[in-house]
Amino acid sequence: MSNTNLSAAAAADLESAMPTTKRHPFASKDPSFDRNRKIKDKVALVLVSLAFLMAMIPLVSLLISVIVGGYKLITPSFLTYSMNGVFGQSTLGGAYHAIIGTLWVTLGATLISVPIGLFTAIYLTEYGNNGRLSRLTRFLVDVMTGIPSIVAGLFALALFTIVMGPAYISGFRGSVALSILMIPTVVRSCEEMLQLVPNELREASYALGVPKWLTIVKVVLRTAAAGLTTSVMLAIARVIGETAPLLVTVGATDRINDNLFDGRMSTLPVFVYNEYTSVDMPCAADAVNCSATIHADRAWAAALTLIIIVMILNLVARFVAWKVSPKGRN
Length: 330
What we know:
The protein has helices at about 5-15, 30-70, 75-80, 95-125, 130-145, 150-165, 170-195, 200-205, 210-225, 225-240, 245-250, 270-275, 295-325, 325-330. Helix content is about 70%, strand content about 0%.
């Protein structure tokens, strides 16, 4: 055997004897490509993190501003007294009447918009089959999403003026205006949640002989209960802070009114607007219960109260979704 053959055999034996490193199955044959991919991955991670921080800056700044400006006036008297008989720079009174009005008007809007929006979403998902009517409905819902809030208020005002007369004023007019803004959000978000339910669940129910309507009630809606509850809360959060439609439909008052269908009602957004646009004046030297900045303080306190109400409603909605969903009941 020649020396060349001996050296080749020795090299082959040496190579087989050396430990082989396990190669990643998705690794590239070009090491430079892997390095570039890692660099691009890190750059994308940095950009996404910066975008997240930039999005959090206005949110954190808003929360800090509202808490700093409103925590001083969040007292039991502020939450349990109205502004009836309170004038000038007096520190007496509170936002109880506005809290009651906000809850009643929002409740009325929810009772109107949630059934309409949910049934529309069920039709689009379960019965529409992407037909002409379903496509037209989606188009109209998309158009309604972009309607300015003041237009919804003017529509409700005109509707009740024609039907009930110009002298009729109630919180229900504000509920109708807010429901116009809520319905598109409920429809689109609930439709997305219903589409996430696997078709296998529907087919298994049909295979057992369950009617379609009962499958929707017992299977589809229960499976999507958490998402549907979140969708409703998003719609409520969308309208609970609206001011323009309530200014033209409900107006404002300093008295407590718990009748949704009769009389003016004050709401927290309108209360914040009225207080913040009121002129603060210096107090006299011998004045009692007087503050030179009481109007601005009340506005910040009412804004903080509104945020607290939204947080409480979100917690309640999450609890309800946890109890209603199949996993929460086990």
